[in-house]
From TrEMBL:
It comes from Arenimonas caeni. Pathway: Cofactor biosynthesis; thiamine diphosphate biosynthesis. Homotetramer. Forms heterodimers with either ThiH or ThiS. Pfam families: ThiG. This is Thiazole synthase. The active site is at residue 109. Belongs to the ThiG family. The lineage of its organism: Bacteria, Pseudomonadati, Pseudomonadota, Gammaproteobacteria, Lysobacterales. It is an enzyme of class 2 (transferase). The gene is thiG. Catalyzes the rearrangement of 1-deoxy-D-xylulose 5-phosphate (DXP) to produce the thiazole phosphate moiety of thiamine. Sulfur is provided by the thiocarboxylate moiety of the carrier protein ThiS. In vitro, sulfur can be provided by H(2)S. It comes from the Bacteria. It is found in: Cytoplasm.
Length: 267
């Protein structure tokens, strides 16, 4: 029996030179247990999953349940993140720990928070950490504010993807800053992924319709009444939003335009 050749996705997401079929990235926190984490991740169709190194066991605590047992690195791209870090130094140390735990893994998600209430990024510390990590050989996907100038600066430093917030982390408010996100998308030469603020499927679709390359979410799925079902909905929404963006929507007009015009018809 001849094995069919593997086919590349027609519209791939490419991050740090690696191709992915799914444009939905998911977090691994806030689920009730590892089994729910696994089932929701599978329902989302995610290929990249983020892991908070300070909060999740991926081998640093022998004898405790290990996330990698249910989300193995040979099936998923594990994206260590620096959630909970408030200084560049802490973020850099966390990334280096992740690299040791994951046998030299270099792809990381950088986030340096400014305060505990809003969880907005500290942009000064984020820039500092990004410069150090890029120089140290890391491939940095970076959580940032919706400032187009800052996003461009992070790209120029060498970050492989910029991840502006759509609204505060965990707020579920949806995309509150469409103009800023659109400005970032139109000027970026690296993937742009909305990170934070998504609450439901329509929010994910809007982000994709703006031209974002992907969406990362955790709370919107893990905090839903049925996380697995919500993960499935988010998968469909991201796909639909991407297809709508590629198709090109009709322009908005104040007046009606008949779907079946009578021009050229005889009564």
């Amino acid at each position: 029996m001849t094995r069919a050749p593997e086919t590349r996705p027609a519209d791939p997401l490419v991050i740090a030179g690696k191709t992915y079929r799914s444009r939905l990235l998911t977090g691994t926190g806030k689920f009730k247990d590892l089994d729910e984490t696994r089932r929701a991740t599978e329902a989302a169709g995610a290929e990249i999953v983020t892991v908070a190194i300070r909060r999740t066991n991926i081998g640093q605590n022998p004898g405790e349940p290990n996330l990698l047992d249910v989300l193995p690195p040979d099936r998923y791209t594990i994206l260590p993140n620096t959630a909970g870090c408030y200084t560049a130094d802490d973020a850099v140390r966390t990334c280096r720990l992740a690299r040791e735990l994951l046998d030299g893994h270099s792809l990381v998600k950088l986030e340096v928070l400014g305060d505990q209430k809003t969880l907005y990024p500290d942009v000064v510390q984020t820039l500092k950490a990004a410069e150090i990590l890029v120089a140290d050989g890391f491939e940095v996907m970076v959580y940032t504010s919706d400032d187009p100038i800052l996003a461009k600066r992070l790209e120029e430093i060498g970050c492989v993807a910029v991840m502006p917030l759509a609204a505060p982390i965990g707020s579920g408010l949806g995309v509150q800053n469409r103009w800023s996100i659109l400005e970032i998308v139109e000027n970026a030469r690296v993937p742009v992924l909305v990170d934070a603020g998504v609450g439901t499927a329509s929010d994910a679709a809007i982000a994709m319709e703006l031209g974002c390359d992907g969406v990362l979410m955790n709370t919107a799925i893990a905090g839903a009444k049925d996380p697995v079902l919500m993960a499935s909905a988010m998968r469909k929404a991201v796909k639909a939003g991407r297809e709508a963006f590629l198709a090109g929507r009709i322009p908005k007009k104040r007046n009606a335009s008949a779907s079946s015009p009578l021009d050229g018809h005889f009564l």
